[in-house]
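Hi Y.,

Following your request, here is the sequence exactly as I used it, all 608 residues.
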Amino acid sequence: MFNLKYIYIMKKIFILLLVACFTATLFAQRAVPRYTFLEMFTSATCPPCYQGNVNLHNMLNQNNATGGKYTLIKYQMSWPGVGDPYYTAEGGVRRSVYSINGVPNLCMDGVNRQTSFNNNMLLQAQAVPAYMEVYGNYNVVGHTVSATIHIRPTMDITIGNNLKLYVAIVEKRTVNNIMSNGETLFYQVMKKFMPDANGIILGNLTACELITHELTWEFQGNYRLPANSSSPINHTIEHSVENFDNLEVVAWVANTSNRQIYNSCTAIRGNSFAINFYVFNADKGTLTATVDDAPIQSGELVTPGTVVNFTAVPNTNYYVKEWVVNGCDVVEGNNSNSFSITMDDSQIVAVQFIRDYNVNFGTANEYGSITATVNGAPINSGDNIQEGSAIDFTAVPNEGYEVKEWIHNGAVVPDNTTNNFSITVNGEENVSVEFIEIKKYGSVTYNVIDGNGSLTATVAGEPFESGIDIEFGTVIEFTATPNEGYIVKEWKHNNEVVADNTTTNFSLTVSGNEIVTVEFEELVGINVINLFSVELCPNPVTNELIIKNAEQVQKVSIANTLGQIIKEEILSGENNVVISTQNLQSGILFVTLKDAEGHEITKKIVKK
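Below is the corresponding structure, written out as tokens. Let me know if you'd prefer a different format.
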């Protein structure tokens, strides 16, 4: 009933394993079927344990989904009451590992499940990829049990002395330890660890390196049925095995630091071997096997030397990518639908199906080009590429341009403006790259020569400090503010005098590193000095600008921030002048007042 065999992994596992199979470029790190390890703590004196054991076995046998893909061992406990007669000190060691303080209590793959356990939990546990194969054979001769346990990891495991192998002898059915809870049949009862419950240190393991342990235990003396758990079996002189033909061996590998179970097995009695086979991606095709033209099922036992023939049937558009033996050995040169193996040990055979997908790529604009390679070999847009292949794309921008963004299957790739992008083919793939002109920046510095005033600069109305880097094409507005009694003498741009500009305003468009200076000179003559007595109000202005003390003003010019004259009027020596600003644009405006001798000053106003 509980003779476990290696059988095919369920469909849910295949889906989870697919990613690992696609990303593995070498034979290592491939998942193998997981045999969920169940440890049941129970007692013949525990009333709930009877129904707990019944429920467990009913659940384990309710359907084919879980059948055979687990390893079960039970530890009879020394409580409640007088406890189970088949309690052993080694069972107590396992109890302490989980800090068990009540029964029934089930631990699954190193996790204490207490009494909350159901079929879905088991299915989920079986669906977790395993990266270690554990299998073996055993024999019973007289009172001696000998076992050969094999361990083959498919990935490097480097946890040192924390990695241990545990091997235990269980009696598949006992009937003599009937006590007080009404239970009359007891299954998978642990009788003895080989060599003991402390396990065997494995140390660090290398991927795909087969490790073998030979173990032997001889049961001593005669059978004794303890009255209760207060006088447990002394293995040096006696035993509690009811039927030596009913013994079997279970094994598991665990990380003792966190109780993680890597995998487990129930060893096969005698010299037969288990042949297991499955499809990595079960939704892409099927796999069958025959011996002498007769079909067999995954998990069946065969004799040494038996030739097993496999036939893969891919779904439409798919084909065989590779055959893999024992999760490690890729069958080189065979991507046909057939494969054969001669049984010289227990084996796991898997096939992976694959298909080709169309890959298109190009540029979103004309400012560069794109290339693509698979394993260093160039491909063209529109080629059919094998599923799971890694494609490396390289963008080559034209001079002065850079990558703006990559687009994969219609979606922008986040956080990638580099010249490189890679994908793994999982369907029809479309990749494009868009280029953008490289932004250039120039350092903009400005200052006043010899003082006598100040100089400010703004971009879109926002001031900035001298020495800031500013993007090419940006328009900068400079405003000079002379001290009283001074006017602008000249502006210089990159050490060249700006012709015909003695106003208080200067504009430029950044095209490189820019140096702007302004120099002031002292006013000469009463008329010029009188220009400083001119007042502009209100400021800000709405519809009318009033110019007070305007007797010396001959001409008024109003310019915008670009230096363009937008209004100009000739005055006739009146003291107060009103100028309409109703049709002028809102924003900063510069009003230049000029006298008859050509002297001028400029003042800034704001138009609402």
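The CA atoms of residues 136 and 231 lie 33 Å apart.

Thanks again,
Q.
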